[in-house]
Amino acid sequence: xxxxxxxxxxxxxxxxxxxxxxxxxxxxxxxxxxxxxxxxxxxxxxxxxxxxxxxxxxxxxxxxxxxxxxxxxxxxxxxxxxxxxxxxxxxxxxxxxxxxxxxxxxxxxxxxxxxxxxxxxxxxxxxxxxxxxxxxxxxxxxxxxxxxxxxxxxxxxxxxxxxxxxxxxxxxxxxxxxxxxxxxxxxxxxxxxxxxxxxxxxxxxxxxxxxxxxxxxxxxxxxxxxxxxxxxxxxxxxxxxxxxxxxxxxxxxxxxxxxxxxxxxxxxxxxxxxxxxxxxxxxxxxxxxxxxxxxxxxxxxxxxxxxxxxxxxxxxxxxxxxxxxxxxxxxxxxxxxxxxxxxxxxxxxxxxxxxxxxxxxx
Length: 362
Ligand code: DP6
Known about the structure:
Layout: E1 19-33, E2 38-39, E3 43-44, E4 48-66, E5 73-78, H1 84-97, E6 107-115, H2 126-141, H3 150-163, E7 175-178, E8 192-194, E9 207-211, H4 222-228, H5 235-254, H6 258-277, H7 288-304, E10 309-312, E11 318-322, H8 327-338, E12 347-351, E13 357-358
Parallel strand pairs: 5-6
Antiparallel strand pairs: 1-4, 1-13, 2-3, 4-6, 4-7, 7-8, 9-11, 9-12, 10-11
Helix pairs in contact: 2-3, 5-6
The chain binds ligand DP6.
């Protein structure tokens, strides 16, 4: 297997004290061009593009203590409590990344993760959590690093990807691209890179109001959904579409063309769910309210010529995206017509953010 980052040695990082603590706060992200379908070890079938969020973050604290060789290991806590399901995922992740960080054999870790958003809000926390954890471990390797340059972030993105594909993109602020695409110089399936073009004013500070339609656990996980792409009858067509949409969205960004931007984002969201519906076996993560919200957004947009669009991740919740300047027009609409359709009227006001930060502050 091609590994761009060579495994390090088993000796402990030179300046690592006998014990200490590292913290990172890392955001979730929402994909505009969707990653759906994997190949090899956690590599994407197509390139994806995302907006990094600001408010929806995970705070990870990693306490470490040196041990005798071979006695390394970890305890994991979610919101200060043991969590057997997450614990299993974290332990198998640590096993997976051990070849890159053999010094983990000589450390005992205590990992604690907390989210800024309620666990049952239906917001995927794997991207924010896995990116925060990867950043902590990469910092451990480079202890006591204080400057986080592009090499550091690239490795953190690579490591985050091994935990969850979309987490690779959360390592960067604003917008990030993951997956090899001919239009993006330096893009890679192995790690994400920051969006290399200038982000036009209209897309800066993009607002994302997350409408929580259903906060329950999904019937089909993203990992299962990705698997179903392997024998999907429309897989090749979908991959072609994603690549073309990537080209088109770059053009729309270059020309500050909101209408094209919106139409591609919606096409991606609906195509993602169309792939789920037409998988074998097919499944749907959409709810009646999801479709009602989409209808209302379209009607409102047509009537008021408003700059608002929507996207969906692998679930029923709707992300409403609009430029900052459009808030005055859009917010009353969301409050009056959309909020009543949310589960317990729960909406989360988020927006484009600047990416992870060391420490446990937002
Ligand atoms: C629909 O990154 O959650 O949100 O790699 O198995 O952890 P794993 O999957 P995950 O899939 C995300 C799929 C998506 C689209 C996207 O974020 O690009």
